[in-house]
Write a structure and sequence with these properties.
Blueprint lengths: L16 H12 L13 E9 L3 E3 L10 H13 L5 E5 L7 E5 L1 H9 L4 E7 L5 H5 L6 H13 L4 H8 L3 H8 L7 H7 L6 H6 L5 H14 L4 H9 L20 H43 L2 H10 L1 H12 L4
Parallel strand pairs: 2-4, 3-5
Antiparallel strand pairs: 1-5, 3-4
Helix pairs in contact: 2-3, 2-6, 6-7, 8-10, 12-14, 13-14
Length: about 325
């Protein structure tokens, strides 16, 4: 007598069998390697350490005359220490620490009569990391920071005192973007230019400001002299005050007019090169790869040396080049 086997579960669709078998195999595979967690350079807890137990790792000469030191002292006097000192324990001397980063802050604390400082303990006694990874605050970001602080009720005079700046400079930063096109400001918001350069753009119209900002970004040049040349090379119909004659110390009216023509030609040539740069680089890269394979053929090299020696030398130079 035949017995039917009992079903242990619902019937499986034959069309799903390959997918299910693949899923079963995937379960049996070893776990994928996990990404390595980066090591912290210092401990997360903060310590209050006596200044007498902190030994500097270097000597700062003439620190009293440093503008940065004066700014740190002024900031600490107004708002206290923002960034803690970075210390590394000295094994040979218990309860003594080597100062890895923060030498000017330590000197400022001593000048202000402080006895202790808030510190972080580093796991290595190197100070390169803390000094190599520094983000300078661009003028536009500084403008936004000051405007936000003033809107939140902070007095501009206190900001000037905390930053060790004249009050006129602070007020100038507050109005830095008045008359600046929003798109141009967006292009330059994280660029290390100067407030003087940004104010120079106010002489031209909004569309011209965008063009100048794009040229500065494309050439990676944000110095005042380059921006001034672009402004002097601007046609009169793109100036905010066309009736005001362009002036530049050391240049006559004819010289300014010549500079305008040359800058216009230079911008036109630059934009032409910029539009074809990617395609040209791709073509040159492919041509170099082809010549490398061609010059690897001994018969081809012998033929070229026998009949086209000049071309062979040029091909060898291109094939040996590391960069296009």
């Amino acid at each position: 007598m035949k017995h039917k086997a009992k079903n242990s579960g619902p019937a499986t669709d034959p069309t799903l069998a390959p997918l299910l078998s693949g899923a079963e195999e995937a379960v049996l595979l070893p776990d994928a390697p996990q990404a390595e967690v980066p090591k912290l350079a210092f401990e997360m807890r903060r310590l209050e350490v006596s200044l007498e137990r902190i030994l500097p790792s270097r000597i700062v000469k003439n620190h009293d005359s440093l503008r940065r030191y004066k700014a740190i002292v002024a900031s600490m006097r107004e708002v206290g220490m923002v960034e803690p000192l970075i210390l590394h324990p000295i094994r040979e001397k218990p309860d003594t620490y080597l100062l890895v980063d923060g030498h000017l802050r330590l000197l400022a604390l001593k000048q202000l009569g402080k006895l202790t400082a808030e510190c972080l303990l580093a796991k290595d006694d190197e100070g390169f990391t803390y000094n190599a990874r520094i983000n300078r605050l661009p003028p536009i970001q500084c403008h936004k920071m000051i405007v936000k602080a003033v809107r939140n009720g902070v007095n501009p005079e206190r900001i000037a005192s905390a930053l060790n700046m004249p009050i006129d400079v602070v007020r100038g930063l507050m109005t830095l973007l008045d008359g600046i096109n929003g798109e141009a400001a967006e292009l330059l918001k994280d660029k290390n230019t100067s407030p003087r350069t940004i104010r120079l753009l106010k002489r031209v119209t909004g569309l011209r400001q965008i063009e100048i900002a794009e040229l500065m970004v494309s050439t990676n040049s944000y110095v005042f002299g380059y921006a001034e040349a672009l402004v002097l090379g601007t046609p009169k119909d793109q100036l905010v005050n066309p009736a005001v004659p362009k002036k530049k110390t050391g240049l006559s009216a004819e010289g300014v007019a010549k500079l305008e023509r040359e800058m216009e030609s230079l911008e036109r040539d630059f934009k032409g090169i910029e539009t074809t740069y990617t395609a040209n680089m791709m073509s040159l890269t492919l041509a170099r790869s082809y010549l490398r394979k061609l010059m690897a053929n001994g018969k081809v090299v012998r033929f070229l040396k026998a009949h086209h020696a000049d071309l062979c030398a040029e091909f060898e130079t291109i094939a040996a080049a590391e960069a296009v």
